[in-house]
Write a sequence for this structure.
């Protein structure tokens, strides 16, 4: 079993296959903790973890907070609107002020790419990227891979399709990095105006035909379409998007019998996927959420805790 | 007050002299050039082992006065220019308020006269407030001392308005400089659109935004029989179009900046905001094409687009950092390292791109060459000096340069303007 040596988790681009597998393996042990009556292990007792979110989030922040608390760490949440960002303090200034209170880890989400790296380069605290701009969302991709591995037994050799606004998606990018490192074949599908230049050089294939994509892939991962994209003229209408790129029960007729339907959430029911499919037999969306806590516990443990397996309650 | 330069290898645009010569300067004018001059002078400069060029002229700088004096002033800009070997600069009008009337032009001129040292000429705006809606009073701006007009920082994207600007400027006989950027294509972008921008997850500017305007203005210049000067060309395709336009006899001139013949968009991979510039750093193919364009004369001038920003302005995420880098103090080092040492340009070509051609564009008839009777603006370059760019060395108020830490060959030894030494190592 390899060792974790990095101070921060910024993205999957800079992790190798062994490091990703270490996180997934560690997450397995922590999933069990959340199923107990007393959902607590003392691994990070006395550690201080801060979530610093400059972009709104319900589930990711709650997921990180629960992960930290279940490891017995102390947590506080700082949201952009309540922090001094509005008073014109720079991101680095805000983070340094927080670090001065002797915190061990800062979990940061920001609408601009590169912010977590800037923080990690200038501070001693461990930085965990909860999403920066359109660049990376490593914990989401890790919990996606954990879910795939759990349900289908492996990642190597699988065909995974990511459907939607790839251009603006950090989830898509992190998944492409992670899945290809573990030997899966990734296809991206969506309107041409929302497929970014050079995506093939990251190892993804482009296919605009959803029916083809449904037929050929073991995992279908539609992404949330931001309703503003139509205002920004990327899409002629959401109606046409739903018709050509939305997944519903009828279109899944030709899907593989063990196909997984995933989604990073929140879903626009009726747009990228129908309510029926979101709640249907192939959907593992809620498993993703459960696994998210386990994966984030694993990451916090690897960054802040001792090496080796988590100890039992004393 | 006289000055004697001894042992000078004189480099002019047409040729470099094989033998060293002496240059006698009196009352700000080159009085005599000969193999050996033994007259007594107030000051003597020994140029042995160095290249002596006509004073370098930068047709594209941003001195942030009026409005953003914390970044640079006319005074600090003059010091940076002198250190960089420049004896004349043209400064862009995107000040606050915009230089769209004679009072702002006169402010810059009076400030530069107060400081002295080198020549500073204002560039007036093409449209009022650079608003892309109404033309400025071009006669007034020319009479106030503007040597060119530009909306640089922004592009005149309204084609009808640009046509009118060309027609009017032709009558006024003042050159127009276009910052080529179709804002609808580039809007919100942070760097070149390509594999790097996709991996970094930031909005990219497709080369299209520059080339569609280059194409448009070539068409306008052709149709109306006017001249046009393209600022900071960054793309292979732009160079190709200009080369073709020149072949067809259209009066196009162009400039390129040192960063566009040195760096690619790889420089942004670690989110270095000092590498965020407009037009953005492009690909290696574009860098090579810019060099080729400088070599074959498709690109007439080297200009720095010196764009100072305070530390706190640049200490930001890539999305919000302002565009631009300082360039006056690193230009010569980059030209010698990337072009002369790399055998892209000969020394006479350097004199052409950095002095003679800019003088021609700006209508500075008595500058741009070392000849008897010309203004005594002279730059002495030590082409063998090896140095590392360090932040502490900068004389400019701002130090936003992606070249900090870079090892360069070639440095300005002495800058002489109007017969006076305004900088020496």
């Amino acid at each position: 079993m390899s060792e974790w040596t990095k101070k921060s988790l910024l993205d999957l681009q800079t992790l190798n296959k062994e490091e990703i597998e270490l996180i997934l393996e560690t997450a397995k042990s922590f999933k069990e903790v959340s199923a107990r009556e007393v959902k607590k292990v003392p691994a990070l007792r006395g550690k201080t973890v801060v979530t610093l979110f400059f972009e709104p989030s319900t589930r990711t922040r709650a997921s990180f907070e629960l992960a930290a608390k279940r490891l017995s760490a102390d947590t506080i949440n700082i949201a952009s609107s309540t922090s001094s960002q509005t008073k014109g303090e720079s991101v680095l200034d805000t983070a340094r002020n927080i670090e001065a209170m002797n915190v061990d880890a800062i979990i940061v989400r920001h609408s601009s790419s590169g912010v977590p790296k800037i923080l990690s380069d200038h501070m001693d605290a461990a930085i965990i990227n909860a999403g920066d701009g359109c660049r990376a969302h490593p914990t989401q991709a890790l919990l996606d891979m954990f879910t795939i591995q759990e349900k289908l037994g492996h990642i190597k050799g699988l065909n995974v399709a990511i459907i939607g606004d790839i251009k603006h998606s950090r989830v898509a990018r992190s998944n492409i990095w992670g899945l290809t490192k573990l030997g899966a074949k990734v296809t991206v599908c969506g309107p041409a105006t929302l497929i970014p230049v050079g995506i093939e050089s990251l190892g993804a294939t482009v296919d605009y035909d959803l029916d083809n994509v449904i037929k050929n892939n073991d995992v279908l991962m539609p992404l949330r379409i931001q309703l503003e994209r139509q205002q920004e003229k990327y899409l002629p209408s959401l109606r046409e998007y739903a018709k050509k790129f939305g997944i519903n029960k009828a279109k899944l007729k030709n899907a593989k019998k063990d196909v997984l339907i995933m989604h990073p959430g929140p879903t626009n029911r009726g747009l990228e996927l129908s309510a029926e499919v979101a709640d249907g037999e192939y959907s593992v969306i809620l498993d993703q959420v459960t696994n998210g806590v386990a994966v984030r516990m694993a990451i916090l443990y690897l960054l802040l805790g001792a090496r080796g397996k988590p100890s039992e309650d004393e | 007050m006289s000055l004697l330069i001894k042992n000078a290898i004189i480099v002019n645009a047409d040729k470099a002299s094989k033998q060293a010569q002496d240059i006698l300067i009196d009352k700000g004018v080159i009085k005599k050039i000969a193999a050996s001059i033994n007259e007594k002078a107030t000051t003597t400069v020994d140029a042995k082992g160095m290249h002596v060029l006509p004073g370098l002229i930068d047709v594209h700088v941003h001195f942030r006065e009026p409005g953003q004096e914390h970044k640079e002033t006319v005074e600090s800009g003059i010091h940076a220019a002198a250190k960089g070997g420049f004896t004349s600069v043209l400064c862009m009008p995107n000040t606050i308020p915009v230089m769209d009337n004679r009072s702002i032009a006169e402010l810059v001129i009076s400030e530069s006269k107060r400081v002295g040292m080198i020549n500073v000429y204002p560039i007036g705006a093409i449209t009022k407030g650079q608003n892309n809606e109404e033309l400025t009073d071009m006669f007034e701006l020319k009479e106030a001392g503007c040597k060119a007009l530009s909306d640089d920082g922004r592009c005149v994207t309204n084609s009808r308005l640009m046509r009118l600007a060309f027609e009017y400027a032709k009558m006024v006989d003042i050159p127009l400089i276009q910052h080529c950027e179709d804002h609808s294509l580039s809007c919100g972008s942070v760097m070149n659109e390509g594999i790097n921008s996709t991996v970094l997850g930031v909005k990219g500017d497709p080369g299209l935004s520059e080339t569609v305007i280059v194409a448009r203005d070539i068409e306008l210049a052709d149709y109306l029989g006017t001249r046009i000067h393209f600022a900071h060309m960054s793309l292979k395709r732009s160079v190709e179009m200009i080369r073709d336009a020149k072949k067809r006899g259209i009066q196009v001139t162009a400039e390129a900046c040192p960063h566009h013949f040195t760096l690619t968009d790889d420089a942004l991979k670690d989110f270095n905001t000092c590498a965020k510039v407009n037009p953005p750093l492009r690909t290696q193919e574009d860098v090579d094409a810019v060099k080729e364009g400088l070599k074959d004369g498709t690109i007439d001038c080297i200009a720095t687009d010196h764009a100072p920003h305070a530390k706190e302005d640049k200490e930001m995420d890539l999305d919000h950092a302002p565009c631009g880098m300082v360039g006056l103090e690193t230009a010569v080092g980059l030209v010698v390292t990337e072009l002369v040492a790399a055998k892209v340009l000969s020394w006479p070509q350097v004199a052409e791109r950095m002095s003679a051609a800019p003088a021609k564009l700006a209508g500075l008839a008595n500058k741009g060459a070392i000849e008897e009777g010309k203004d005594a603006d002279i730059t002495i370059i030590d082409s063998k000096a090896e140095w590392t760019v360090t932040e502490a060395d900068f004389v400019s108020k701002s130090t936003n340069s992606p070249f900090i830490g870079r090892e360069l060959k070639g440095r300005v030894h002495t800058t002489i303007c109007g017969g006076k030494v305004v900088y020496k190592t």
The first strand of chain B starts at residue 2 and ends at 10. The two ends of chain B are 22 Å apart (CA to CA). DSSP finds twelve helices and 18 strands in chain B.
